[in-house]
Structure formats: structure tokens, C-alpha cells
Design brief:
Helix content is 53%, strand content 0%. The protein folds into two domains: 2-52, no CATH class; 73-112, Arc Repressor Mutant, subunit A (Orthogonal Bundle), CATH 1.10.10. With 117 residues, the protein is mainly alpha-helical. The chain contains five helices and no strands. The mean pLDDT is 76.
Length: 117
């Protein structure tokens, strides 16, 4: 539906910019254009000053900074599991509750990350 609306807008703007392609309906579109512009609106290509869009390819390049810490989700997950186990003095049940995961998931993660208590 959005595509259809955009297509209709494009057709309407094309007709407003080139009334010859409208045939018998050209005067109607010219009146709509006058009314539209009288309300303070402007259409692409009908502004009092030309609209020029510039694209600077350098805008697409983002500044990159080296970060010393790891941004890996797996590393963060491992780190949080270790912290939770230390906080709860190795009690897996309490650590899993604190982490918001089941004990079974905690056991699996301990094995996956080769974490020894």
C-alpha cells in the first residue's frame, strides 16, 4: 500500500510539473498547484530556489576508536557467570536465580565456557 501511495504522489508531482501530460485535466491540476503553494507548501522542483542535494561519501565513514575491552557477548556472558558464582560463593542455584537463567542452563554454560568454580 505504501508503494502505491508513493507511486501516486510521484504521478501527481509529475503531472503538476508537466501539465501537458494531463490532457483535459491540466487546468484542474494547475488550480491544485496554486492552492497548494498558496498554503505555504512547496513541491519538489517547484520551490522558488532550486533544491540541490549533495552526497558526501565521507559522511558514510564513521570514526573508529580502538576499545581495549572485549565486546563479545560470549565473553560478557562468561564474565557475568563468574561474577555471579563469586557473589554467591559457588552456589549455583543462587547464581542462576541472580542471572535470571535456570540451573540447567547455568550448568550447560559452565561446561560450554569451561568454567571451574
Amino acid at each position: 500500500m505504501k508503494k502505491d501511495v508513493n507511486e501516486l504522489k510521484k504521478m501527481f508531482f509529475d503531472l503538476l510539473q508537466n501539465p501537458n501530460i494531463a490532457g483535459n485535466h491540466a487546468p484542474v491540476f494547475q488550480e491544485e498547484l496554486k492552492e497548494y503553494n498558496n498554503n505555504g507548501n512547496t513541491l519538489p522542483g517547484t520551490a522558488s530556489q532550486p533544491v540541490i542535494l549533495h552526497h558526501n561519501p565521507n559522511d558514510d565513514i564513521h570514526h573508529h576508536e580502538d576499545v581495549e575491552e572485549s565486546l563479545s557477548i560470549m565473553d560478557k556472558e562468561k564474565e557475568l557467570i563468574i561474577k555471579a558464582l563469586k557473589k554467591h560463593k559457588g552456589k549455583r542455584k543462587d547464581a542462576s536465580l541472580d542471572l535470571g537463567i535456570s540451573e540447567r542452563t547455568l550448568y550447560r554454560k559452565l561446561k560450554e565456557y569451561d568454567i571451574e568454580e
